[in-house]
Design goal:
By secondary structure, the protein is an alpha/beta fold. Helix content is 33%, strand content 19%. The chain contains 15 helices and 19 strands. The strands form four sheets. A seven-stranded mixed beta sheet has the order 5-6-7-8-9-18-19, covered by helices on one side. The chain has a six-stranded parallel beta sheet with strand order 12-11-13-10-14-17. It has a four-stranded parallel beta sheet with strand order 1-2-3-4. β15 and β16 form a beta hairpin. α4 packs antiparallel against α9 and α7 packs across α8. It binds zinc ion.
């Protein structure tokens, strides 16, 4: 079995995406997919192309979102490969990676028939002695914690795979399910060395409100680079709340990201996954995905037409780190205006235009031209979709007896090591931080 099949997005690990799998894909009995983020599902097209014939078990929402995300990734890789090939030819050199897409749109499409939906709380039997069960992880819509239960003779073992664990009390999705029993646990550690305490005390909506009101008063627009999955929908949720409470003027909100729009459609189809507050809003007829001031932008022409609007507006567009997408032309139109604000609501990786702006750049290159940065650059913290150190500990703290071992994975080395030490110290449990391609014998 395989749990998740993610793509390495960090530049320094990208060559791993190109290496052959360390196992034969056709020998697998099952794939369990925790959620639709690219670092969990991004290599599925390669897995299927290289011979996997079985089912990919996940929730229905994950299957629908992963399909959108994988097709987009394939498209970007095709574009990227074509661009690199042209550039290398022009420069008469060869790059470190082949000028081929890692996988194509056809490869991504071939994954779709393999998805098999499992509801939260349900299990699938993979072989006579192995089953896998899905529980809400509270991270993004459809995200799951997977437990794999193995029986041989009268012995049983339960292995808990966290996927990514969400923070409790986030908008839209329910809180993560906790477990009182596991023989082994494999847990993520994205924020394993951080404490969001200061974030928790900050009211996201209050920060948003102040930022919007100040910008509108100055006569500018608010431009928000945003990730298509969860962050865009959360942002719409908060904006809807502020509009309902009339804490901000009735400004138009443009969602100008085709991918965010398609993913929002998946959200709308899966109201059964919403938390109580969200259900209440829907019952009152105040959906954050179709409020009066919300304008869904479809075509590139419509996107460009936003610039002709004279009233002050809020524009949410991808990509989240300004590495591509429609956000670029909105920045071209707003970045030189001192009255406008560029508002960041998510993590900005090193080297991305988003990070360069946040680090205080005086000018920025966009679509082939350099612009002076005169707009306000603002970041709102507290949008984290990952549990922090205490959150991860709390998530494990219902265990009635110590797991035989907790494997701490899926974080930068410093975060993983720090969380493993913290967990051992707090609980006395055995923890291990596995390295790339390590193996472990479960007894
Ligand atoms: Zn994730």
């Amino acid at each position: 079995m395989l749990v998740d099949c993610g793509l390495y997005q960090e530049r320094k690990y990208q060559d791993r995406n190109w290496r052959p799998f360390q196992f034969s894909p056709e020998s697998l009995d099952a794939v369990f997919l925790t959620h639709a983020h690219l670092d969990h599902c991004g290599l599925l097209p390669k897995l299927v192309r290289d011979g996997y014939r079985g089912k990919i078990y996940c929730t229905q929402a994950t299957a629908e979102i992963a399909q959108i995300i994988l097709l987009d990734a394939a498209h970007l890789q095709e574009e990227d490969a074509a661009y690199k090939a042209r550039r290398h030819q022009r420069e008469g050199r060869r790059g470190p990676y082949p000028e081929l897409p890692l996988y194509t749109t056809e490869d991504a499409e071939a994954v779709v028939p393999h998805f098999a939906a499992v509801e939260y709380g349900n299990c699938v039997r993979v072989t006579d002695d192995i089953d896998g069960c899905f529980y809400n992880a509270g991270h993004v819509l459809g995200s799951a914690v997977v437990t794999v239960n193995i029986a041989w003779g009268c012995e049983k073992r339960r292995i808990l795979f966290s996927g990514d664990v969400g923070e409790p009390d986030r908008p839209i999705v329910n809180d993560p399910v906790v477990f009182d029993e596991a023989d082994y646990a494999v847990i993520e550690s994205t924020y394993g060395n951080r404490t969001h305490v200061e974030h928790k005390s900050i009211d996201i909506q209050a920060q948003l409100r102040d930022c919007i009101n100040e910008t509108i008063k100055a006569g500018g627009n608010i431009v928000v680079p945003s990730f298509a999955l969860e962050r865009s929908q959360e942002l719409l949720y908060h904006l809807n709340e502020l509009l309902l409470r009339e804490e901000i003027p009735p400004v138009a909100v443009f969602l100008d990201s085709p991918m965010a729009m398609r993913i929002t459609e998946v959200f709308k189809r899966h109201a059964e996954l919403f938390d109580r507050e969200m259900v209440q809003r829907l019952r009152q007829g105040n959906s954050p995905f179709s409020f009066e001031n919300l304008r869904i932008v479809q075509t590139t022409e419509e996107s460009k037409a936003i610039n002709l609007i004279k009233e002050r507006v809020i524009i949410i567009a991808g990509s989240g780190m300004v590495t591509g997408g429609r956000i670029k032309h909105h920045l071209v139109n707003n970045i030189t205006r001192p009255e406008s604000t560029v508002l960041f609501v998510g993590y900005q990786a090193e080297g991305t235009p988003g990070r360069i702006l946040l680090d205080g750049a005086r000018e920025l290159r966009l679509l082939g031209q350099t612009y002076p940065v005169r707009a306000s650059i603002v970041k709102i913290d507290g949008f984290s979709a990952h549990a922090d150190r205490e959150g991860l500990l709390a998530w494990l703290s219902d265990m009635r007896k110590p797991p035989r071992c907790v494997f701490v994975t899926h974080g930068e080395e410093i975060a993983a090591t720090s969380f493993a030490e913290f967990l051992s110290k707090q609980t006395g449990w055995q923890t291990v931080v596995p390295h790339y391609q390590d193996t472990a014998l479960l007894t």
